[in-house]
Design brief:
The complex is a heterodimer of chains A (about 425) and B (about 325).
Chain A (H helix, E strand, L loop, with lengths): L22 E9 L6 H9 L5 E3 L12 E3 L11 H6 L2 H17 L14 E5 L5 H12 L7 H5 L4 H11 L5 E4 L5 H14 L5 E8 L3 H9 L23 E9 H6 L6 E10 L12 H14 L6 E5 L6 H15 L7 E3 L2 H4 L6 H15 L30 E8 L3 E9 L1
Parallel strand pairs in A: 4-5, 4-6, 9-10, 9-11
Antiparallel strand pairs in A: 1-7, 1-8, 2-3, 6-7, 8-12, 11-12
Chain B lengths: L4 E9 L18 E4 L7 E5 L22 H15 L9 E7 L4 H14 L16 H10 L5 E5 L4 H15 L4 E8 L4 H8 L10 E3 L1 E8 L7 E11 L3 H12 L8 E2 L7 H7 L5 E2 L7 E2 L2 H16 L6 E6 L4 E7 L1
Helix pairs in contact in B: 1-3, 6-7
C-alpha cells in the first residue's frame, strides 16, 4: 500500500487508508480587499490590481508602516442593524463570504438559512475578534473602567462560529485551527480528512481574519512589513503587506454531492502538512519541511510534480519566507519547474494570515474554472530561480492541477492540491 | 467513531503537582487571593503553578523555552510525561493536537500594554511571537522532537473534545499511529475581570480558578492501555444560556442511558448539566473544591476518569466538557 509519505520520512511505514476518497467542492465565496465577493475579487485580481492603501480601520499612528490592504465591509442587509453593530469585524467579513459559498453550493433555502440543520465547520483564524479584547483591556486600564460584557463576550474565536451558526441557520461540530498563517490550508485539509474518514459528508470550511492593532503592531515591531510595496520573489523584497478578508468553501463527498444533485466545481485531491523545528518566526531555509508537505500532498493525490500547472505560493515578500519557498519548489519540481507558473496573490490583497490559505484556495479554484492565472504584480527583479516562471497578466493554465502552499510562525507548513470538476 | 481509541499514557502539570495523583484531591492545592484589576471589584482565590519548583523547572533553561510563556511550560511538562511513560514510542512518529481557550494570555496582555503605554513604535518584537496561538505547541514540538502533524485548536472548554476528534480522524485515516492531545491554560489577572464581566462567577456555583495542562497519548486498541475512548459526542452548540439547556440534553442523549457521568460542570451551566444528567449515576472524580482551568480541566477530568477505569473502580463513564460560551461535548470511556 502507498504510505503517503516519502521513504525517508519517519511516518513512511504507516499505511494510509481512505487515500483516494473523491472530495468535491460545490461552492465558494470570499470577501477581500479587492472585492466583496468571489467574482469581483477575481476580476480585479486577474487584471493586476492591488488593494494597498492607508489603514483606517484600526489605529496605526506611530507605526513604521501605516499602509496595508483593508477590505470594505459588505452590507449585511439580512441581519438586523442593531445586531450588525455588535458583530466583530471578523464576523462582518466571515458572514457574507460563508453565505456566498453556501448559496453557490445550493445549500441555502429561500429565506437564506442552511438547508442542513447540522453542518460541520472546519475553520481558521489567528486573531478572531481581537478588537473586542483590545477594547476590553483599554477599558480596564482607563481612568473610568466599567463593565464591558458585550465586548468581552464577543472576543473569543468561537464567537465567529456562533455568529455563522445563528445568522446562517445551522448547528453542529466545529473546529478552529490556529496554526498561524498556514491555518487556512490546514482547515481545508482537515475538512477533506473529515470526509475521507467518514466523519462528515459535507463540511463548510474556510478562514477569516480582520485587521487589528495588536497584530499590525506586532508585524511592525518585527519590521516584517515593506514600507513601500510588497514584492514577492523579488531580489529587493523587503517585507509583507498585511491584509484582511474571509473565504469559505463547501466541501463534500462526491457521493453526497451526487445524491443532492449538486454541481461539482472542483476537487481537493491532496493535502500535506508538516512542522519544522527551525525557529519560531523563520522557516527552515533548506525548504525541506515545506517540500515534504508538498510531496505528501502530491503522493496522496496520485499526481506527479509535472502535473502541476500553477502554484499559488505563500510569497509573503519577506526575505526568509520567499527564499525557503524557492528552495522547496526547486527541490520538488526540478526539472519540471520550467513548465510551472507561480504567483503570490499577497502582493495584491495583502497577507490575510488565518484567512490566507482559504482565499488562495478560492483563487486556485477560479484558475481551474476560468483557465486564467493571477499575475505576479510588483516584482520587477525576480530571483534567478524563478526567472520566467512568475505568472504574467493573461497567462493561461495549461495543466490539470494547481497547488497552494502556506507557511506560518511556529514552523507550520501546508500544501493543498486542487483539480477541476 | 468507528474504532475505539486507547489512552496509552497521561501527563499532568497542575498547581497540586505534576502527577495524576495530584488530581484526586484539590483541597491540598495552593491558592491565593487575587484582586480584579478594576478597583473595588471582587477578590478571587486562584491556584497557580510555581514554575521554579521541581519537576516543572527542568524546562526553564531549554533554548526555546527561556522566554516562553507559562502556558508553554505547563504544556511541555504534561506532553513530556506522556512520552516518558512510553519510551518505546518514537516521538518522530507522533502527532499532536493542542486545545486552548485563553491561549497565550500573559504575553498578549503584556505586549498590548507595552504598545499602548510606550507607543506603537516601541512594541516588543520579542514578545509578539509569543502571543501567537500555535507558539506553545511549536516550542513543545521542537524541544521533544515530535515529528507528526501538529494542530493548535482554539475554542471554549469543549475544544478538548474537538481536539480528541481530530486525533481520532488522524488515527482512523492512518495519517499517524499515535497522537498526543493536550489542553493547557495560563492565568492572568485580567481574566478575572473578563469572567466577572460575562457573569461566570456565580456565588451559587463557586470554583477555584486554576492553570496548568493535561495530556493523553492516544493510539489504536492496545492491551496495555489505561482506558479506551469508545465514543465522542461533539458539536452541541448554543448561543444563549437557555439554549445550552437543550444542547446539554441532546449531547447526553447520545450515550447509553445506564452510563454514569462524571461531575465536571462549573459556573452558570451547573444546573443545566445536573438536569441533563439527572437520570444517570453521578460520579465525583475528585475530592475538594471544583477547579476550573478550561481545556486543562477537561484533560484532568479525562485523566481522572481513565484512572478510575484502570483501577477497576468503574467499567465505563461519560466525561462531559461543559463549554461556557460555545458548545458542549463529551467522551465515553471504558
Amino acid at each position: 500500500m502507498n504510505s503517503g509519505f516519502l521513504p525517508h520520512h519517519p511516518l513512511a511505514s504507516i499505511p494510509i487508508v481512505n487515500l483516494r476518497e473523491d472530495i468535491v467542492i460545490t461552492g465558494w465565496g470570499c470577501v477581500s480587499p479587492l472585492g466583496g465577493d468571489a467574482a469581483s475579487t477575481w476580476t480585479a485580481l486577474v487584471s493586476g490590481q492591488e488593494a494597498r492603501g492607508p489603514i483606517t480601520a484600526i489605529p496605526v499612528d506611530g507605526c513604521r508602516v501605516t499602509h496595508g490592504a483593508e477590505a470594505a465591509l459588505p452590507a449585511l442587509d439580512w441581519i438586523f442593524k442593531k445586531e450588525v453593530s455588535r458583530l466583530s469585524r471578523a464576523s462582518r467579513l466571515a458572514l457574507p463570504a460563508a453565505r456566498e459559498a453556501m448559496a453557490d453550493a445550493g445549500i441555502l433555502d429561500p429565506s437564506g438559512q442552511s438547508r442542513f440543520s447540522r453542518l460541520e465547520m472546519s475553520l481558521s483564524t489567528t486573531a478572531c475578534g481581537m478588537e473586542f479584547g483590545e477594547a476590553f483591556l483599554r477599558g480596564l486600564w482607563s481612568s473610568n473602567p466599567r463593565h464591558q460584557t458585550a465586548r468581552m463576550s464577543r472576543y473569543p474565536a468561537q464567537q465567529q462560529i456562533s455568529d455563522l451558526q445563528q445568522h446562517l441557520g445551522f448547528t453542529g461540530p466545529s473546529m478552529i485551527v490556529s496554526n498561524a498563517c498556514a491555518s487556512g490550508a490546514n482547515a481545508i485539509g482537515h475538512a477533506g480528512d473529515l470526509i475521507r474518514g467518514g466523519f462528515a459528508d459535507i463540511v463548510l470550511t474556510g478562514g477569516f481574519e480582520a485587521l487589528c492593532e495588536l497584530v499590525f503592531c506586532g508585524f511592525d515591531a518585527l519590521q516584517a512589513m515593506d514600507p513601500e510595496v510588497c514584492r514577492p520573489f523579488d531580489l529587493h523584497r523587503r517585507g509583507l503587506m498585511l491584509g484582511e478578508g474571509a473565504a469559505f468553501l463547501v466541501m463534500e463527498s462526491a457521493a453526497h454531492a451526487a445524491k443532492r444533485g449538486a454541481t461539482v466545481k472542483g476537487r481537493l485531491v491532496g493535502y500535506g502538512h508538516t512542522t519544522d523545528q527551525f525557529h519560531i518566526t523563520q522557516p527552515d531555509p533548506s525548504g525541506l519541511p515545506l517540500a515534504t508537505a508538498i510531496r505528501i500532498a502530491l503522493d496522496r493525490s496520485g499526481l506527479a510534480p509535472s502535473d502541476i500547472g500553477y502554484i499559488n505560493a505563500h510569497g509573503t515578500g519577506t526575505p526568509f519566507n520567499d527564499g525557503t519557498e524557492v528552495a522547496a519548489f526547486a527541490s520538488v519540481f526540478a526539472p519540471d519547474i520550467h513548465d510551472l507558473a507561480i504567483s503570490s496573490t499577497k502582493a495584491a490583497i495583502g497577507h490575510t494570515l488565518g484567512a490566507a490559505g482559504a482565499l488562495e484556495a478560492v483563487f486556485c479554484l477560479k484558475s481551474l474554472e476560468t483557465g486564467y492565472l493571477p499575475p505576479q504584480i510588483n516584482t520587477t527583479n525576480p530571483v534567478p530561480e524563478l526567472l520566467g516562471r512568475l505568472a504574467k497578466p493573461g497567462n493561461r493554465l495549461t495543466k490539470k492541477a494547481v497547488l497552494s502552499v502556506n507557511l506560518g510562525f511556529g514552523g507550520s507548513n501546508a500544501a493543498v492540491i486542487f483539480t477541476p470538476a | 467513531m468507528k474504532n475505539p481509541l486507547s489512552i496509552l499514557s497521561v501527563g499532568v502539570s497542575s498547581p497540586g503537582g505534576a502527577t495524576s495523583n495530584a488530581l484526586s484531591d484539590t483541597s491540598s492545592w495552593p491558592s491565593q487571593p487575587v484582586k480584579e484589576v478594576i478597583p473595588g471589584r471582587g477578590v478571587r482565590d486562584v491556584s497557580i503553578i510555581d514554575l521554579s519548583a521541581e519537576p516543572v523547572n527542568r524546562w526553564r533553561l531549554r533554548p526555546r523555552l527561556r522566554r516562553a510563556s507559562p502556558l508553554s511550560h505547563h504544556l511541555i511538562e504534561a506532553v513530556a510525561q506522556t512520552l516518558e511513560a512510553r519510551p518505546e514510542i518514537d516521538p518522530a512518529r507522533v502527532g499532536i493536537v493542542g486545545a486552548f481557550f485563553l491561549g497565550c494570555l500573559v504575553y498578549s496582555v503584556k505586549f498590548y500594554k507595552g504598545l499602548t503605554t510606550d507607543g506603537r513604535r516601541f512594541a516588543s518584537p520579542v514578545l509578539f511571537p509569543e502571543t501567537v496561538a500555535n507558539t506553545p505547541l511549536s516550542h513543545v514540538v521542537a524541544e521533544l522532537g515530535i515529528g507528526g502533524p501538529v494542530y493548535s485548536q482554539v475554542g471554549d472548554t469543549s475544544c478538548w473534545i474537538s481536539a480528541i476528534r481530530t486525533a481520532s480522524v488522524w488515527l482512523q485515516n492512518g495519517d499517524v499511529d499515535h497522537v498526543i492531545v493536550a489542553g493547557a491554560e495560563e492565568f492572568d489577572v485580567h481574566e478575572l475581570d473578563g469572567f466577572h464581566s460575562v457573569r461566570w462567577f456565580d456565588e451559587a456555583f463557586p470554583f477555584l480558578l486554576a492553570e496548568g495542562a493535561g495530556a493523553i497519548l492516544l493510539g489504536h486498541e492496545n492491551k496495555t492501555s489505561i482506558a479506551r475512548i469508545t465514543s465522542i459526542a461533539d458539536g452541541y452548540s448554543f448561543r444563549t444560556r437557555p439554549q445550552s439547556r437543550q444542547a446539554a440534553s441532546d449531547c447526553m442523549a447520545t450515550f447509553a442511558p445506564h452510563l454514569p457521568v462524571a461531575e465536571t460542570a462549573t459556573s452558570w451551566i451547573t444546573p443545566f448539566a445536573a438536569e441533563a444528567t439527572a437520570d444517570r449515576p453521578s460520579i465525583s472524580i475528585h475530592c475538594g473544591p471544583k477547579v476550573e482551568a478550561f481545556t486543562a480541566s477537561c484533560a484532568w477530568n479525562t485523566i481522572s476518569a481513565a484512572r478510575l477505569i484502570e483501577n477497576q473502580t468503574l467499567s465505563s463513564i461519560v466525561v462531559p466538557a461543559w463549554g461556557l460560551s460555545q458548545q458542549i461535548g463529551a467522551l465515553a470511556l471504558a
